[in-house]
Design brief:
The complex is a heterodimer.
Chain A lengths: L1 H21 L1 E5 L7 E3 H8 L13 E5 L2 H12 L3 H13 L7 E3 L2 H10 L3 E6 L8 E6 L4
Parallel strand pairs in A: 2-6, 3-4, 3-5
Antiparallel strand pairs in A: 1-5, 1-6
Helix pairs in contact in A: 2-3
Chain B lengths: L1 H29 L2 E13 L15 E13 L2 E12 L8 E9 L6 E8 L30 H4 L1 E11 L3 E10 L6 H10 L5 E19 L5 E18 L4 E19 L3 E12 L8 E10 L4 E11 L8 H5 L8 E13 L3 E11 L12 H4 L3 E12 L1
Antiparallel strand pairs in B: 1-2, 1-16, 2-3, 3-4, 4-5, 5-6, 6-7, 7-8, 8-9, 9-10, 10-11, 11-12, 12-13, 13-14, 14-15, 15-16
Classes of the chains: A alpha/beta, B mainly beta.
Chain lengths: ~140, ~400
């Protein structure tokens, strides 16, 4: 009986981990030739350190203003809390170093922006319909 | 005077409110980024006037800034910030151009900025006037003394910057510093060069300035280490009260700052060490260090604690040399233990409260020491409060 419960728990854990991994996807323009990015690449893109794709095109990151998704995206990839991320960009704004990524309130707006912007990159939930954009694989950083 | 200054703050506040209300409209029309802030502080010290008449408690402590920027292309941006401040007799709400630059960023590794640019010294010099970007009211005074703020704040020139393999951020620059003879930093420098005798017709300019900042974002998430260096030559002249002309020719003034910054989810730890060097020791060589920790309790409240040590001359930390001149030796240092709280009300309002226990008066400007009796008190404290709105 104990063994059966353990197996059930294990299966549920695997399913939830799988769903967790799928709850957020990073999207780019369909013509973007980049197949994958590391988490470090994403961090550098969203912190104004990496500004060019490998083909030389300008990277245009955008944010989705949905608290739970934003928090998850920033924690996993940018390694900052929403407050730290916001402060980083305010620091850029008020010292003349840069302006933050454009923010959208809906997933449809993020997808529409990335679909019409060749260098665009954004994130949406795994349930969103990715019409006109392509999801990109995010790999763990190599040690 | 206070009424007039309060009037200034009110007008600037009203102007900012109008801009906040209108921001979506004209930002949309002209595709501009528009941001601003206004701060009002209160200082009250047990002894000594600390930049303002703090012994009686003072509201003469405010800042206001407004910046606009516009991207002309995906790699080219123009921007500028107007700024005004009041701190006792300093600033008096005179509006100045804080920074104004063109920024061209063709590659990850290389960007170029031209114009008036904030000088990248340590972790805080570039943002020292923007209250809501940090936990404490003052930037750590041991490394960022307000006495030379006006000199080191910004330069007119150009810089190259970027992000290098190995997770390194760099900025190299050259240009000239703003030497306003009536600013506190320049004035105390001129006083020192005049041997503390009365003088007239002062002039001072920076002949050569170059410097750089390098930050290594270490593999340990949140930990970065930084190094700052700059070197400066200055020249000028003044005339002593008896008509004796004095030519100023100062070469090889340099500053080194080492920085450590660790940012975790709810807490942070920063520490910096700095020291000036002057060729041939013709001036005193200030040095200082601090450690500071913050802990965020929740979305609204963050606590901070810090310890600073500043020495007016790294070659006379105990004040033995100045004691030979009949000056109390506690003028040689200032050691500051501070605790405080930052309260965030929504995304635009910040309120801060702070308490500092201080040993020594090495950071108090000469003109803030009204008489010898006051000079004799080494132990003092002050309370600070500040509210900031930004958009």
């Amino acid at each position: 009986m104990k063994q059966k419960s353990f197996v059930t728990c294990w299966i549920l854990l695997m399913i939830s981990a799988h769903l967790g991994a799928q709850d957020l996807v990073v999207i780019v323009h369909p013509e973007n030739e980049t197949r994958f990015l590391s988490k470090k690449d994403l961090q550098h893109i969203y912190l104004n350190k990496k500004v060019r794709w490998n083909d030389g095109g300008r990277i245009v990151p955008v944010m989705l203003q949905r608290a739970e998704l934003q928090e998850s995206f920033l924690a996993r990839n940018v390694r900052k809390t929403p407050r730290q991320f916001s402060t980083f960009w305010k620091r850029q704004i008020f010292t003349g170093k840069g302006v933050p990524p454009t923010s959208f309130t809906s997933e449809q707006e993020v997808i529409a922006f990335v679909a019409r912007t060749p260098g665009g990159i954004g994130f949406v939930s795994g349930k969103a319909s990715l019409k006109g954009v392509r999801s990109i694989e995010i790999q763990e950083d190599s040690s | 005077m206070l009424r007039q200054k309060t009037g200034y703050s009110y007008r600037y506040g009203l102007l900012l409110m109008i801009l906040v209300v209108c921001k979506p409209v004209w930002a949309q029309l002209r595709d501009l980024e528009v941001h601003g802030f206004i701060s009002q502080g209160y200082l009250d010290s047990s002894e000594h006037d600390y930049w303002a008449p703090t012994q009686d408690g003072t509201f003469e402590f405010s800042e206001v800034g407004l910046n606009i920027s516009k991207s002309l292309r995906d790699d080219l941006r123009l921007g500028m910030q107007f700024f005004a401040r009041d701190l006792g007799d300093i600033g008096n709400h005179e509006v100045v151009i804080d920074w104004a630059l063109g920024d061209y960023r063709p590659r990850d590794e290389l960007g170029i900025r031209v114009g008036r640019i904030k000088q990248p010294i340590g972790l805080y010099n570039q943002e020292r006037d923007v209250d809501f970007l940090r936990s404490t009211i003052w930037v750590p005074q041991s490394v960022y003394p307000d006495g030379n703020r006006d000199i080191v704040l910004a330069y007119d020139g150009f810089s190259i910057y970027g992000h290098l393999p190995g997770d390194l951020d760099y900025e190299l620059y050259t240009g000239s510093l703003n030497m306003d003879e009536e600013s506190p930093g320049t004035e105390s420098l001129l006083m020192s060069l005049a041997g503390f005798l009365p003088y007239v017709d002062p002039s001072l300019k920076s002949d050569k300035l170059f410097g750089g900042f390098l930050k290594w974002n270490t593999p340990l998430d949140g930990l970065s280490l930084g190094g700052t260096f700059y070197e400066l030559d200055m020249s000028g002249s003044l005339t002593l009260f008896d008509g004796t002309p004095v030519l100023i020719d100062l070469d090889g003034i340099s500053l080194v700052v080492w920085s450590l910054d660790y940012q975790a989810e709810n807490w942070s730890f920063t520490g910096e060490w700095s020291a000036y060097s002057v060729q041939d020791n013709v001036l005193s060589e200030p040095a200082g260090w601090y450690v500071q920790a913050t802990y965020r309790i929740n979305d609204r409240v963050e606590l901070n604690a810090g310890y600073n040590e500043f020495f007016g001359n790294k070659n006379d930390k105990d004040g033995e040399l100045i004691a030979l001149l009949g000056v109390p030796n506690h003028l040689a240092w200032q050691k500051d233990t501070g605790i405080g709280a930052r309260i965030d009300l929504g995304t635009s309002w910040t309120v801060k409260l702070e308490w500092h226990e201080i040993d020594g008066i090495g950071l108090i400007a000469a003109f803030d020491i009204p008489n010898l009796d006051n000079l004799l008190e080494p132990d003092w404290n002050y309370f600070g409060a500040k509210a900031t709105f930004h958009f």
